[in-house]
Amino acid sequence: MPLLRAVLAVAAVGLLVPTALADVKLHPLFTDNMVLQRDADVPVWGTADPGEEVKLTFRSDAADSAAQVVAVKANDKGQWKATLSTRGPAVPGYTLTVAGGNTVTLKNVAVGEVWVCSGQSNMEWAVDWSGEPAKVKAEPEAKNPNLRLFTVKKRTAAAPITDMADLGHFTKWDVCSPEAIGPFSATAYHFGKHLQKALGVPVGLIHTSWGGTPAEAWASAEALKAVPELAYYVEKAKKAADAAAPKKEAVGPNTAASLYNAMIHPLLPFAVKGAIWYQGESNADRAAEYRTLFPTMISDWRARWGSDLPFYCVQLAPWHANDADGVSWAELREAQLHATKALKNVGMAVITDAGDLIDIHPRDKATPGTRLALAAEAGTYGLKVAGSGPVFKDLKVEGGKAILSFDHVGGGLAAKYRTLNGFTVCGEDKEFYPAKARIEGDTVVVTCDKVPSPVAVRYGWKNYPVVNLYNKDGLPATPFRTDDFPLTTATKK
After folding, report:
1. Fewest CB atoms within 10 Å of the CB: 44, 117, 121, 281?
2. Is pLDDT at 200 greater than 60 in this prediction?
3. In whole angstroms, what is the distance from residue 72 CA to residue 45 CA?
4. Domain ranges in the chain?
5. What is the mean pLDDT of residues 298-302?
6. What is the pTM of this model?
7. Can you tell me whether residue 384 is helix, strand or coil?
8. Mean pLDDT of 279-305
9. Per-residue pLDDT tens for 159-192?
10. Could you give the CA distance from residue 391 to residue 406 in angstroms, rounded to a whole number?
11. 298 neighbors 346 (Cβ within 8 angstroms)
12. Interhelix angle 328-342/287-305, nearest 10 degrees
């Protein structure tokens, strides 16, 4: 920065007083090695002096490539925003130069696919903490110039952070390497690795998660307040903020909207393709409410980004949850499944085969990451891959047989370990009994000697289900129930 970019003449005494003028600065999401969303009008923004002209030059480092030049002026608050078109080649090797009174140059910029990766501890769980980290980091894919990683550090806020100078918890973009992936989200890494290979274009991952946090912390106060059954969260958050303010303390990470304010809102309006989500454990005791809360949060993010953001979640893994035969986690899994039906462009990775009876953090993060990628490849990118395991569609009762049909059968239904298990059935008394099940074509036929006239069937309806229904593409069926009996968490808040 020049020593003096402007002076103020004070005629009365003839003094020259230097005026503090601002360097042109970019929002901290914009760094070397970043990925810009392809095939989009991408916003780029930052600060400068009020009224200062800012010129952006975006060019490929390839020989004879034409530069894209955009000029804008900062407003009276010193804020500026420009729009770049990324409809050129989706490759690395771009340079972005932003010039005003000073010049900022970003190197090794890529154009490709950008995904937000969020949730609680199972999304936060790093490669270094997961299964066989040394093996994962030794794989050839661990050194990949076409996969880029960005982490938002943990922070809360009582109101949305709008000052980009207050984003010290934002890091920088890293090129995928064994060193970079070690502390990075394992689920997100495996998702990005699989997706990048399938698409053959650069992929950028923005990791923003916090262990032990509930979904209401990741939704905006406005969205929660607009839904009558969720509005109580806003009042609780206000009381928490009022209590923290005199002590100059931050609100806690379980406070409604606190993580949206600090770890989602400051990402806006950065152009992204979609989001992946691994969360729900902290809401399992309120699983019935999650049927409303989760779609509310997804819709909120979509409204904030101004797009029909593709959204893929990991269904909760099997865990004892202090009672392996309890059903609160089953009810939360159903709430996650409900979101895929209530909203379009929402998918789910089922991991009934990747849980841990005694550990809420199963070390296998390759399975959820890979299945999230398959769901996105099929649902968002239209690739000819199986993106989902079987999903219950219809129940038909014939005599003493309950006949179940499914969507996402793929090449057909299959049972791992030969005999199907995990099915229960009830009659009019609503008492469920273990049932026999067999595959007949694209259906499953369920029978039970104790239930001569079946009314409803449940599959995997436990905190820790032991189940083995798949399609022949190797993807497991989601747990389900055919009934609408009252949920055990229906009155929990």
Report:
1. 121
2. yes
3. 10
4. 25-110, 117-379, 391-481
5. 98
6. 0.94
7. coil
8. 98
9. 999 999 999 999 999 999 999 999 999 999 999 9
10. 5
11. yes
12. 30
Q: What is the mean pLDDT of residues 27-36?
A: 98
CB proximity list for 140: less than 8 A, separation 6 or greater: none
Q: Do domains 25-110 and 117-379 have the same CATH topology?
A: no
Q: Cβ–Cβ contacts within 10 Å for residue 175, how many?
A: 17
**Which fold would CATH assign to domain 117-379?**
Rossmann fold (3.40.50)
Fill in the amino acid letter for 158: A
What does residue 311 show for φ and ψ, rounded to 5 degrees? -140, 125
Residue type, 299: S
DSSP state of 449: T
Q: Quickly count: other Cβ atoms within 10 Å of residue 6's Cβ.
A: 11
The answer to whether the Cα torsion of 175, 180, 184, 186 is positive or negative is positive
Rounded to 5 degrees, φ, ψ at 428 are -60, -25
DSSP label at 75? -
Half-sphere exposure of 137 (CA within 13 A, CB side): 17
Q: What is the pLDDT of residue 155?
A: 98
Confidence of residue 20 (pLDDT cuts 50, 70, 90): very low
DSSP 241-291: HHHHGGGTPPPPTTSTTHHIIIIIGGGTT---SEEEEE--GGGGGGHHHHH
Report the CATH number of the 25-110 domain. 2.60.40.10
How far CA 462 is from CA of 101, 280, 329, 378, 481, in Å, comes to 63, 15, 7, 29, 11
Which residue carries 């009810």 as its tokens?
A: 331
Q: In percent, how much of the chain has pLDDT > 70? A: 96
Residue 206 has pLDDT above 80, yes or no: yes
Answer yes or no: are the C-beta atoms of 189 and 151 closer than 8 Å.
Answer: no
pLDDT of residue 63: 67
* Closest of 372, 439, 385 to residue 190, by C-alpha: 372
Omega within 30 of 0 (cis) for the link into 269: yes
Residue with tokens 């219950």: 392
Residue located via tokens 């960005």:
150
The C-alpha angle with vertex 376 and arms to 133 and 149, in degrees rounded to 5, equals: 45
Mapped onto helix, strand or coil, the DSSP state of residue 80 is strand
3-state secondary structure of 287: helix
Question: In the chain, pLDDT over 90 holds for what percent of residues?
Answer: 94
pLDDT at 301: 98
**Residue 404 CB contacts under 8 Å (≥ 6 apart), including other chains:** 392, 394, 395, 443, 444, 445, 446, 457, 482
Distance CA 484, CA 465 (A): 20
